[in-house]
């Protein structure tokens, strides 16, 4: 899961600082999410999925299908 959020961020050419602003958290908190040092709250998972137009299942590595078909 942690690798996926980093890949999504990097694919979108966003910095950790930019991502933390999008998620309304500190850069350190976001960095801890990417490093797996902090559990990602459900509200943040939802925000990530919406921002990157993917599914929470993809972020959680439950599927390798990046596209979100629920829209």
Question: How would you describe this structure to a colleague?
Answer:
There is one protein chain. The chain has 71 residues and is mainly alpha-helical. The protein is built from five helices and no strands. The longest helix is centred in the middle third of the chain and has 11 residues. The model has no long low-confidence stretch (mean pLDDT 93).
Low-pLDDT segments, ≥5 res: none
- Described by the principal axes of the CA atoms, the overall outline is globular
Q: What is the count of helical runs?
A: 5
Largest beta-sheet details: none
Q: Which structural class should the secondary elements be placed in?
A: mainly alpha
Q: Got a strand count?
A: 0
Oligomeric form of this entry?
single chain
Q: What percent of the residues sit in helical stretches (DSSP H or I)?
A: 55-70%
Task: Average the pLDDT over all residues and give the rounded result.
Answer: 93
What percent of residues are in strands?
under 5%
What is the H/E order?
HHHHH
Computed Rg: 11 Å
- In whole angstroms, the N-to-C terminal distance is 22 Å
Task: Give a summary of the structure in a few sentences.
By secondary structure, the protein is mainly α.
């Amino acid at each position: 899961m942690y690798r996926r959020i980093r890949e999504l961020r990097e694919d979108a050419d966003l910095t950790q600082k930019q991502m933390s602003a999008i998620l309304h958290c500190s850069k350190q908190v976001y960095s801890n999410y990417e490093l797996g040092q902090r559990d990602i709250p459900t509200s943040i998972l939802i925000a990530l999925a919406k921002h990157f137009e993917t599914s929470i299942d993809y972020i959680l590595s439950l599927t390798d299908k990046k596209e979100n078909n629920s829209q």
